[in-house]
Amino acid sequence: MEKRIKSIENPEGKLGVLIVGLNGAVSTTFLAGVYSILKGLSSPIGSLTQMGTIRIGNRDDNFFPRIKEFIPLTELKDLVFGGWDIRNENCYESSLYAGVLSKEDLAKVKQELEIISPMKGVFDQFYVKRLKGDFVKEEGNKYEKMLMLREDIKRFRKENDLERIVIIWCASTEIYIPVNGVHRDIDNLISAMRNNHPDISPSMLYAYAAISEDVPFINGAPNLSCDVPALIQFSKENSVPVAGKDFKTGQTLMKTVIAPMLKSKMLGLSGWFSNNILGNRDGEVLDDPESFKTKEQSKLSVLNYILQPKLYPELYSEFYHKVRINYYPPRGDDKEGWDNIDIFGWMHYPMQIKIDFLCKDSILAAPLVLDLVLFMDFAKRYNFSGIQSWLSFYFKSPIHKENDIPEHDLFIQLAKLKNTLRATMGFEVVSHFEEDRNNIDV
Ligand SMILES: NC(=O)c1ccc[n+]([C@@H]2O[C@H](COP(=O)([O-])OP(=O)(O)OC[C@H]3O[C@@H](n4cnc5c(N)ncnc54)[C@H](O)[C@@H]3O)[C@@H](O)[C@H]2O)c1
After folding, report:
1. DSSP states of 347-404 as a string?
2. Disulfide engineering: 171 pairs with which of 6, 20, 270, 434, CB 3.0-4.6 Å?
């Protein structure tokens, strides 16, 4: 197998990682994990960039390099962390509060976490009803607050002597806002920011500030943020990659594995009931109907996209789909996701599948944060801009162009991601059809 072009250089210098929601459960679990890996105390389980391999060439070439060795990714030792939150705590205090990791594990990275504290966030309780912020930027209209975020980014870059920065939204889920005229183009968006329009949420201000500062932006929550026409256009014009939305970690991860199996086997679906209990702050925020609606939209669309009822009306035109999230404090971050799936087979005979996923929300999300930060930095250095659909693998509700159909099937998403890496490095993409033809013994 022959490499055609040398397309991208090794990263130089330090990469800044600015996390919105720095003191949350996902963020602090991510940070503690990175430091624990750097100290040789644990390994990056769940991270495709660190543990995954990629096949190059035909199977019989027997060449399966690790992804992190195949593409020039920034090394963990070169990451510098910072971010914003609406409570002034250092990340060690917040990680204790989050209650995801044991006190023993946190003690081993206490020194590193203690020195990371947030900058004042841009927050308005109108958008997250269940939270109060006492560490927030008070002055100015929305446009001026966005300018303050830009100043924060510039300062962080300078103080830490950074080559590059990536920003990731790991903050709370905001209320549901439908895309409308104020989001249509950049002029409308700017005047809406200046006029404090209610359809401009804080997450949009962070996204705007990132793109203006030439910084890739990732949205791990289901709220719109960068997923509006004006910001997508802005990201393309500024040559900045954006990605989102809503980390695919638990129940939807299961859905995007089981549903393609049903479709590939031509098994019918009559109902899918998904129920969750969780007791962390995210669960509390999602207990508010307006924030839940944002999450619900994100979770509901998956099945219709995968099952294509229009193509298979006999199998999928009438299934009942319900998603529930219940705030249940005793469980903390230990989410339990039940799925009851009613299916039918040969001669319409009914069957059931039950899933009970006892997971740890932040343990599942932390490696996604790492992969996304590293891949988005890679995308920026490769001059990708706008929506990064090759990173759909990581999201419940992949951002897509207005008339595109997003891909939800986990394994097609993975194939797309790996083929993108192969192509950027100048290698053939993997086509199973061609490979099978080569293997036919003639
Ligand atoms: N853990 C998962 O598996 C998973 C999966 C998909 C999506 N998510 C999303 O990721 C986000 C983080 O989850 P979490 O469990 O860490 O929640 P969390 O409540 O523990 O953390 C959110 C943090 O964001 C801060 N915050 C809220 N609004 C802010 C603002 N405007 N500016 C700065 N900081 C702000 C909060 O103070 C808090 O520290 C949530 O939106 C959640 O829905 C998580």
Report:
1. GG-EEEEEEEEEEEHHHHHHHHHHHHHHHHHHHHHTT--EE-GGGGGGBSS----TTP
2. 20
CATH architecture, domain 15-247+363-424: 3-Layer(aba) Sandwich (3.40)
Confirm or reject CATH 3.40.190.10 for domain 254-359, answering yes or no: no
Report pLDDT for 440: 46
Local structure of residue 66 (DSSP, 8 states): B
For residue 272, list its beta bridge partners.
321, 341
Domain spans in the chain, listed from the N-terminal domain onward: 15-247+363-424, 254-359
d(CA 172, ligand 1 centre) in Å: 4
Q: Is the CB of 369 under 6 A from ligand 1?
A: no
Q: What pLDDT, in 10s, does the model give residues 218-266? A: 999 999 999 999 999 999 999 999 999 999 998 899 999 999 999 999 9
The angle at the Cα of 132, spanning 152 to 134, to the nearest 5 degrees, equals 50
Q: How far apart are the CA of 162 and the centre of ligand 1, in A?
A: 26
The two domains 15-247+363-424 and 254-359 share their CATH topology (first three levels equal): no
